[in-house]
TrEMBL record:
This is branched-chain-amino-acid transaminase. It comes from Meripilus lineatus. One of its GO terms (biological process) is L-valine biosynthetic process. GO terms for cellular component: mitochondrion. SUPFAM superfamilies: D-aminoacid aminotransferase-like PLP-dependent enzymes. Its EC number is 2.6.1.42. NCBIfam families: ilvE_II, PRK13357.1. The modification N6-(pyridoxal phosphate)lysine is found at K257. GO terms for molecular function: branched-chain-amino-acid transaminase activity. Belongs to the class-IV pyridoxal-phosphate-dependent aminotransferase family. Keywords: Amino-acid biosynthesis, Aminotransferase, Branched-chain amino acid biosynthesis, Pyridoxal phosphate, Transferase.
Amino acid sequence: MSSLRSLRPLISCRRFSQPLIKRLALPNLSEARTTSSWMTRWNSTVTQDPMTGELTSLPDIEVSRLEITETNSPKQPPASSSLVFGHTFTDHMLAIPWSAVSGWGAPKIRPYAPLALAPSATVFHYAQALFEGLKAYRDSTGRITLFRPDMNMKRMNTSAARVALPTFNGDAVIELVKRLIRLDKHWIPDLPGYSLYIRPTLIGTQAALGIAPPSEALLFVICSPVGPYYPQGFKPVALYATTEYTRAAPGGIGAYKLAANYAPGVVAQKEAAKKGYVQNLWLHGPEHYITEVGTMNAFLALKHPDGVTELVCPPLDGLILPGVTRDSVLNLARDHASGKTLLEGLPESGKFVVNERPVTMGEVKQAAEDGRLVEFFGTGTAAVISPVNRIGYLGEDIQIPTGPDGMGPVSRPIWKQLVGIQVGSIPSPWSVVV
C-alpha cells in the first residue's frame, strides 16, 4: 500500500507538470526527421547469441528480396460513385514475415487473400496489433504521389516498440509500398477528390498463449480506393464532450496507433449517437482538458481582445496521437504566422499566432459566450479537416461558428493549401513520387 501511496502525486488528476510531460510525450514527428535513428529503427534487428552472449544483427527488410506473384483473376474496379470507405480492396497485398530467430523474411506482393493464422496467435488474445493510414494521389498529369509516408513509418515503428513488436527499416517499406501501388495503380480513380487509401498493419502471429513479446510477426499492407470524405461539400459535425468515458491515461497507449486504442471508443461513439451527436470529443481530468475528436486531432481558433487570432492545438503530452495531418496543419499555419509562406485568407502574420497548449472545455465555453470562438475542427487522414458546428457539454450545446461552405476562416485556407499539396497542384517536398 505504501508503494501505491507514493504513486499518487504522479497520477494526480491535475494536469501534468512540465517535466512529466517531457517524460511521457512522444517526440514531435516533424522534429524526428532530423533526430536520432530510433524513430525508424529500434532493436528488432539485433539479437544476442544464447551461447556466447555476442550481439549479432538479424536481417532487416530488404527490397532486393521482393517476390511478386500477380493474380490470375484480376477484378474490375467498381464505379467510383459506388465506393464506400474501406469496403473495396485492390487485387494485391504486401506481406513480410518476421521471426525472432531469422529476422525479417522476404517481402512478397501477392494476390489479396485471407491470412492463415492459428487460433492461438497472440494478436487475437493480447491485442498485439498496430496500423497506419496514408493515401496515394493521382494528379492531373497522371503522376502518383504519397503524402509524407516517412512520417507514417516513423510513427509505426514507435507504436511497434511500445508493444514489443519488431521494428523495421521504414525507407524499405516505403519502397515496397510504391511497388505495390504501381502494380495496382489502375485502382486509383481518375477523379478529383479520390485516392488510394493504404493500410500498413503489423501483428503478432506466434501460436502460443502467454503475455510476452511474440517470436513471430507479420507486416502486411492492403489498399482501398476511396472517394472524397464530403462528396456533397463540407458538412459540419456535432460532438459530444463525453465525461463518462476516457480515451487515454498518463503513461498509457494514447500516443500510439495501436488497435487496442480503437475498439473501446465504439461504445462511447454509439452513446454519443443516441444523444444526437456524430462523434465524441474526448476529455481528460476533472478540468476537462480537450484531447481528441473521435479518432482525429483537435484544433480551435480564438479571437483575442487585441485582434490577434490564435490557432490552438492540444500538446503531445503522451495522451494524444501525433497525427500526420495535425503536424502538417501546424507547419502550414506556423509558416504563415512567421511570414515564410503566406496563405491567402488567413489573418496577416502579425495578427495570427499558433500554439500547442492545454485547453479546457471551460475555456471553449467561455470563449463562445464572449463571441471569441472563431471555429473548432478535427484533422485526420480520412477527412483531412472536419469542421464542428456544436459541442454538447454538461447538458447544453455550445454553438460553433461555421461559414456558408461549412468551414471556418482559419481551417479553409489551410485545407486548401494542404489538399493542393496532396493532389500535386502545389509543389512540395511532402509529396513523394511513386
